[in-house]
């Protein structure tokens, strides 16, 4: 164990290696292997380019050599904030050629999140698009670099503007042999946690565990060389990257099609053109996709599996998907921290429609416990605790938080579930102070902190409310500091100016004369939940 990264106990690691879960294959060697097996098959497709496995490997080698010439070295952290384009995968594997560590960020993150992540990871480089979805990332990068001394390089896919480096210049570097010293148990990638504190935490994943994550998911989904996966959600999401996602499909010799946006009409054209067999969306997109599937003339006959995850899918909507799509629905419940549950392709329609699946690995250990940490009877609600060959043993550089987030090696997920006799889980809520808005985790304390800095706000509390489309919507309870109370529009504008991502918006604002409090003077969110339930009822 180091201050940065908590490794698995050696006894557990030896057991996982002996069982074949961990195969001792770093990602640089993984790319070499799949290139040798599937070299001339199509690996990646986006709106601009098609790459074979061999072309992907060659481009990754060129970019790795270009990064090495800049001084990026083994162990260095690199922020990756790219949309769904082939450059994401090229860069990702290039970093592994060097032994460097990609830090996944989301296209929607703005300066508040990016400065925090750059400082926490001590990133030496930051890779962005020039403009995406009408947002200029070069302006964001200038601000981040001004606040983070470790950030030596900003690399731009597209027009670099003044003072930045062009990704195409790295691609033009002459390829040369690389001496990668990554070991299977080394840190391979830093993912983002939804988090329950003021800022997002980083989830350390090793080569061994993350590759097993993708492989186990691919086996459950029955992927092979004929599989064609449409990446609809951001590729930096753990769901899109390895559940089975990009890595699972490449490991099976299939093809990954990267969608520029989730619009169903555009995506259905891709499904028809590329003969997509599997894709993954979240509950927010589901009604829109369902309506389009019923009305559209697109040929979706190639689609075999539609994965839905990232948030709890309502039973009613699940049944509509089962009836409305001519393919198998697969519910997915997972987390960047590890545990991945999926319904099986041969599960009954009732199980698929009403559960969030069961663990993908026989080595996943699951406990469902009450508030005192005592196991609850089967079928009763409790907090989900888990450990296994791909579930972290500690967050990155978070020693204090790790002391409470883990019990006897088990990760406390904060999710409230019921476990059925079959092992399937039904997710009923969360004990953590966060909101799962359309699959995006919003840390209530983070947003509350910004709200309470507003001059017209004396006290603020953020709570989730059930929503048929979003899963949960965000409701802010506000005690104004004066006679002129801020409107929802005022507060949304303010949060945007604070640099928060757009998904951390306020769906609703409710004004209070005073904030209910507990006997020790803390905000009484249970009372606010009762107020919320009473108003909605």
From TrEMBL:
Keyword Ligase: yes
UniProt-listed InterPro entries: AMP-bd_C, AMP-bd_C_sf, AMP-binding_CS, AMP-dep_synth/lig_dom, ATP-dep_AMP-bd_enzyme
Domain AMP-binding enzyme C-terminal: 446-522
Positions of the AMP-dependent synthetase/ligase domain: 33-396
Molecular function per GO: acid-thiol ligase activity
Keywords per UniProt: Ligase
Pfam family, one: AMP-binding_C
This protein's record includes keyword Nucleotidyltransferase: no
SUPFAM superfamilies: Acetyl-CoA synthetase-like
Top-level lineage group: Bacteria
Protein name: 2,3-dihydroxybenzoate-AMP ligase
Higher taxonomy: Bacteria, Bacillati, Actinomycetota, Actinomycetes, Pseudonocardiales
């Amino acid at each position: 164990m180091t201050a940065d990264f908590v490794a698995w106990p050696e006894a557990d690691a030896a057991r996982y290696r002996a069982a074949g879960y961990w195969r001792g294959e770093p990602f640089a060697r993984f790319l070499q292997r799949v290139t040798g097996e599937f070299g001339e098959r199509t690996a990646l497709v986006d709106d601009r380019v098609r790459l074979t496995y061999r072309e992907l490997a060659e481009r990754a080698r060129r970019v790795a050599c270009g990064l090495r010439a800049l001084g990026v070295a083994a162990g260095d952290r690199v922020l990756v904030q790219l949309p769904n384009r082939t450059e994401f995968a090229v860069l990702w594997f290039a970093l592994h050629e060097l032994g460097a560590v990609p830090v996944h960020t989301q296209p929607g993150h703005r300066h508040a999140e990016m400065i925090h992540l750059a400082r926490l990871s001590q990133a030496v480089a930051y890779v962005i698009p020039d403009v995406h979805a009408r947002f200029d990332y070069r302006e964001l990068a200038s601000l981040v670099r001004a606040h983070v001394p470790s950030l030596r390089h900003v690399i731009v896919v597209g027009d670099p503007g003044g003072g930045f480096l062009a990704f195409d210049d790295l691609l033009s570097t002459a390829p040369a042999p690389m001496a990668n010293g990554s070991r299977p148990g080394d840190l391979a990638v830093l993912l983002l946690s939804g988090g329950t504190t003021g800022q997002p935490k980083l989830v350390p994943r090793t080569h061994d565990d993350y590759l097993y994550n993708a492989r186990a998911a691919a086996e459950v989904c029955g992927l092979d060389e004929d599989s064609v996966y449409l990446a609809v959600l951001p590729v930096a999401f753990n769901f899109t990257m390895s559940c089975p996602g990009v890595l699972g499909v490449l490991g099976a010799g299939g093809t990954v099609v990267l969608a520029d946006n989730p619009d169903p009409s555009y995506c259905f054209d891709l499904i028809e053109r590329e003969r997509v067999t599997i894709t993954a969306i979240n509950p927010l997109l589901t009604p829109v996709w369902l309506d389009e599937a019923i009305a559209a003339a697109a040929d979706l006959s190639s689609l075999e599996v539609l994965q839905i995850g990232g948030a709890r899918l309502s039973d009613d909507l699940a049944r509509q998907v089962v009836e409305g799509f001519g393919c198998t629905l697969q519910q997915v419940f997972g987390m960047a921290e590890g545990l991945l549950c999926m319904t099986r392709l041969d599960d009954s329609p009732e199980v698929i429609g009403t559960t969030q699946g069961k663990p993908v690995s026989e080595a996943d250990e699951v406990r469902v416990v009450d508030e005192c940490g005592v196991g609850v009877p089967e079928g009763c609600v409790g907090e989900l605790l888990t450990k296994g060959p791909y579930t972290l043993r500690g967050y990155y550089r978070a020693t204090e938080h790790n002391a409470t987030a883990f019990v006897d090696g088990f990760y406390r997920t904060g999710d409230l579930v019921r476990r059925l006799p079959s092992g399937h889980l039904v997710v009923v809520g969360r004990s953590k102070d966060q909101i799962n808005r359309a699959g995006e985790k919003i840390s209530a304390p983070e947003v509350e902190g910004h709200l309470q800095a507003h001059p017209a706000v004396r006290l603020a509390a953020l709570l989730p409310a059930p929503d048929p489309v979003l899963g949960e919507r965000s409701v802010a309870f506000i005690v104004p500091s004066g006679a002129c109370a801020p409107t929802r529009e005022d507060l949304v504008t303010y949060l945007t100016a604070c640099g928060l991502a757009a998904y951390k918006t306020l769906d609703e604002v409710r004004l209070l004369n005073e904030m209910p409090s507990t006997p020790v003077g803390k905000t009484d969110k249970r009372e606010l939940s009762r107020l919320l339930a009473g108003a909605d009822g």
